[in-house]
Design a protein that fits this description.
Mean pLDDT: 80
Number of helices: 8
Distance between the termini: 108 Å
Low-confidence stretches: none
Number of strands: 0
Helix content: over 70%
Bound molecules: zinc ion
Length: 181
């Protein structure tokens, strides 16, 4: 903010009409620019003094002190607002990052499981492990007759139609008379 801009905002400052971002720049400028500070001091004394006359308050004699306090208070308020905004942003960032980490680790788990499963399924043991289990890898537990048991088990468990046909067959056998129909 240059001097021209700062001086054009003096009235707005005194009437508390500056938006926060302009207010911050304004205070920074008048704090570092002697000319603008003096200009502000004159207006401030005039306007606040007249206002106090108007409201027949006790007229404060130390306007400069009042102006400094006003400037400090506003700057503190701005800093607090900024700090709150920053910490809100930090909280949001932390939440987003931890959410991403959580998602990412979930994805990693999935990828890992998928890799493991696909690695296993490339090995023929995978298909038979439910039945054979450790016998596949251990010669001493392995028994050739296991293969027969395996096929019997496979064929007896799942097929509903076979079961149904078997029951019909059984029924027919126990009711011999029905065979002729
Ligand atoms: Zn200036």
């Amino acid at each position: 903010m240059n001097c021209l801009e700062a001086q054009s905002k003096i009235m707005a400052f005194i009437e508390n009409k500056l938006p926060d971002d302009e207010l911050r720049e304004f205070i920074k400028h008048v704090r570092s620019c002697k000319n603008c500070y003096e200009e502000l001091d004159i207006y401030y004394t005039l306007i606040v003094g007249m206002k106090q006359l108007d409201e027949s308050d006790n007229i404060s004699t130390d306007f400069k002190n009042a102006l400094d306090r006003h400037l400090d208070e506003e700057m503190n308020r701005l800093t607090t607002v900024k700090r709150i905004a920053n910490s809100t942003i930090m909280v949001v960032i932390v939440l987003v990052v931890s959410g991403l980490i959580w998602l990412y680790s979930g994805v990693l788990d999935k990828v890992y499981n998928y890799e493991q499963t696909s690695k296993l399924s490339e090995q023929s043991e995978y298909y038979y492990q439910d039945f054979f289990g450790s016998r596949l890898l251990n010669d001493e537990e392995y028994d050739v007759s296991d293969i027969d048991k395996y096929y019997i088990e496979i064929n007896t468990t799942q097929d509903e139609t076979t079961d149904f046909m078997k029951r019909v067959h059984k029924y027919n056998l126990s009711h011999k008379g029905m065979n002729s129909l």
